Amino acid sequence: GSFFRLCERDVSSSLRLTRNTDLKRGNGLCTKPQESPKAPSDSYSHRVPLHKPTEWERKILVWSGRFKKEEEIPEAVSFEMLDTAKNKIRIKVSYLMIALTLAGCVVMIAEGKKAIKRQESLTSVNLEKKAHLREEAATKAKAE
User: For the chain, what are the domain ranges?
Assistant: First the structure.
């Protein structure tokens, strides 16, 4: 019993100390009051690092639609602008590859249908090649 009384005294004295240091108590927890954000000082200026684009990066900036001509591109651009342009180009290239794959599939389907109309199949083509090779082997054997 006396132990709990001592703990209560310590807790109550520590609460008095925290009240004096402007700590707010909410939901059983002590939290510091929110401080107002400090205004940026004049001596510190936040600058985005810039990058001088290469010729290839200049073409990417034009192809992505960021600039109309290479002459409009400034001497230095931000990395964020360059990354955005590269991502746009990646998306365009992936769409192009999807379109080419679909076009190739359509062409192969059309060629397959034409081959069926000619009564042509892989099996018949392979049998013809083997028969031709046998004939050549037989003529070489007779010639020797």
Answer: 2-31, 50-143
pLDDT at 44: 46
Cα–Cα separations (whole angstroms), residue 72 to 22, 60, 76, 133 = 57, 13, 12, 65
Residue partners of 75: CB distance under 8 A and separation at least 6: 52
Query: Where do we find the tokens 């034409």?
Result: 114
Higher pLDDT, 37 or 106: 106
Tell me how far apart the alpha carbons of residues 117 and 67 are, in angstroms, rounded to a whole number: 52
Are 53 and 78 spatial neighbours (Cβ–Cβ below 8 Å)?
Answer: no
Q: What is the mean pLDDT of residues 82-88?
A: 93
Q: How confident is the model at residue 101 (pLDDT cuts 50, 70, 90)?
A: very high
* Four-residue CA torsion sign, 18, 21, 27, 31: negative
Which tokens hold the place of 79?
A: 């990395």
- Provide CB contacts within 8 A for 73, sequence distance 6+: 53, 58, 61, 62, 67
- pTM assigned to the model: 0.51
